[in-house]
Design goal:
- By secondary structure, the chain is of the alpha/beta class.
- The chain has one domain: 3-Layer(aba) Sandwich (Alkaline Phosphatase, subunit A), CATH 3.40.720.10.
- Helices cover about 35% and strands about 15% of the residues.
- The chain is built from 13 helices and 19 strands.
- It has helices at about 5-10, 20-30, 65, 85-90, 110-120, 135-140, 195-215, 220-240, 240-245, 255-260, 265-275, 305-330, 405-415; strands at about 40-45, 70-75, 80-85, 95-105, 150-155, 175, 280-285, 335-340, 345, 350-355, 360-365, 370, 375-380, 385-390, 390, 400, 405, 425, 430-435.
- The strands form 6 sheets. Strands 1, 4, 5, 6, 7, 8, 13, 14 and 17 form a 9-stranded mixed sheet that branches.
- A hairpin with a 6-residue loop joins strand 10 (about 350-355) and strand 11.
- Helix 5 packs across helix 13 and helix 11 (about 265-275) packs parallel to helix 12.
């Protein structure tokens, strides 16, 4: 969804949550953290599925057909080792936690993305999920009328996700383009001032009158929902605060250098800037040219040489993620902002070989592997330096502390102050669906 599409949806969309249910959920969310700041979430997404063996679960003692060419290095946490490709991560491992035991059954990208963020065992390849993803649900609950900023921003949003029966107004405010470019700016924000803003208000009022006539005023809940999104869109269109929040050029050049003067570094910096300004949910995808020829982390042998690709992309990835974690801690934002770094699955332990699709040269690759996925959690007021779960000597299967996708979701919901276990959503037909039928927050990652 592009920027204008979002604003159009915000002027016309509504959701199946009734207003009383919505207010009750918001009250419950606030009550869970009465003495704490409003929490926020940043998801750093590695579309395609990063190899766990070349990142957070290396196997240097495995046979050659498994381990690959890279070794492991010690971190600043005794006994914890990660791939040698991530030296900056290693210096601040005490500020993040590694989960090495996430498991699901989605063997393709659509299934993986949708299982991880909806909790439903999707097996059919769908461009959009049948049920709304976690961020869209949280967006609906956390959004309030009159906000000057969107509650949910996607910096090149995660693909294959969506709001389903909640309505498109709950999807992210999507920002495309490269924030590393001097010309980067987000259009349509804070552009209407003075007389222009007055004219926009009058047009919005006239639009509301036409809507009332066409809807017949027989559905007050629907009418209130329209008004909610109208106010949100109007606030964003007229707010200098929104324009300033997205203006990455205001950042100190030295800090921009620390993140890396590239697309990934500046997306991570913009994510930090947005949560500091008051955005609740930010996802940012580390994809595109820095990933290699196919533009993502899908390292099949036919796509490219997996180890050349990993070595090339590791430096900007290591720099951007470590800078984000360090920056949040330096600013004291780590108490309320949770950072999750993951893709949709790991990669096959056994190295495969195929001819490169462009050159025809035989080269190594790793394929999809949802039976073992590694990810990291940082911030959220949590202690760091933990390793949760383990895999066998080849990194093929989980041997301890198995984590299901609903446990992953429950952990994030709890951080956001949402009681997902008692949350029920109604689909287009009015049938109730539990937002999270099962799942327990990862006990090592809750306060």
């Amino acid at each position: 969804m592009h920027r204008r599409s979002f604003l159009q949806a915000a002027l016309t969309g509504f959701t199946t949550l009734s207003l009383p249910q919505l207010l009750a959920l918001r009250a419950a969310a606030d009550a869970t953290r009465p003495n704490r700041e409003r929490t926020a979430l940043i998801v750093v997404w590695l579309q395609g599925g990063a190899s766990h063996l070349e990142t957070y679960d290396p196997k240097p003692d495995a046979p050659a057909e498994v381990r690959g060419p890279f070794g492991s290095i010690p971190t600043n946490v005794p006994g914890v080792r990660i791939s040698e490709l991530l030296p900056l991560h290693a210096k601040l491992a005490n500020r993040f936690n590694i989960v090495r035991s996430l498991v699901h059954s989605g063997f393709c990208h659509q299934q993986g993305n949708q299982q991880i963020f909806t909790g439903h065992p999707e097996q059919i390849l769908k461009l959009k999920p049948e049920h709304p993803d976690l961020m869209c649900v949280a967006n609906r609950i956390r959004s309030t009328p009159g906000r000057n900023l969107p509650a949910y921003v996607g910096l090149n949003p995660i693909p294959y996700l969506g709001s389903s029966y909640l309505g498109t107004a709950n999807e992210p405010f999507a920002v495309y383009g490269d924030p590393n470019q001097p010309s980067f700016r987000v259009q349509d924000l804070g552009q209407f001032q003075g007389a222009q803003a007055d004219r926009l208000n009058r047009r919005l009022e006239l639009s509301s009158e036409f809507d009332k006539i066409s809807q017949g005023l027989d559905n007050p809940v629907m009418t209130r929902s329209f008004n909610t999104f109208q106010h949100q869109a109007l606030s964003m269109l007229t707010s200098p605060q929104a324009r300033n929040a997205f203006d990455i050029h205001q950042e100190d050049p030295r800090l921009r250098d620390r993140y890396g003067r590239n697309t990934w570094g500046q997306r991570c910096l913009l994510a930090r800037r947005l949560v500091e300004a008051g955005v609740d949910l930010v996802t940012t995808s580390l994809d595109g040219p820095l990933c290699g020829r196919v533009g993502n982390w899908d390292d099949h042998a036919v796509n490219h040489h997996v180890f050349d690709a990993m070595k090339s992309r590791a430096q900007p990835f290591d720099q951007a993620v470590s800078a984000l974690i360090e920056d949040l801690h330096n600013r004291g934002l780590d108490k309320r902002v949770l950072v999750v770094v993951t893709g949709e699955f790991g990669r096959t332990p056994k190295i495969s070989y195929a001819n490169d699709s462009a050159s025809g040269i035989k080269q190594p690759g790793r394929d999809h592997w949802p039976r073992a996925c590694s990810l990291i959690f940082s911030g959220g007021g949590l202690p760091g330096g933990q390793v949760i779960g383990s895999t066998d000597p080849h990194g093929a299967d989980v041997t301890s502390r198995r984590v299901e996708v609903r446990d992953f979701m429950a952990t994030i919901y709890q951080h956001l102050g949402i009681d997902a276990a008692s949350l029920t959503l109604n689909d287009q037909t009015g049938r109730p669906f539990p937002a999270l039928p099962t799942g327990q927050a990862i006990k090592e990652l809750i306060l």
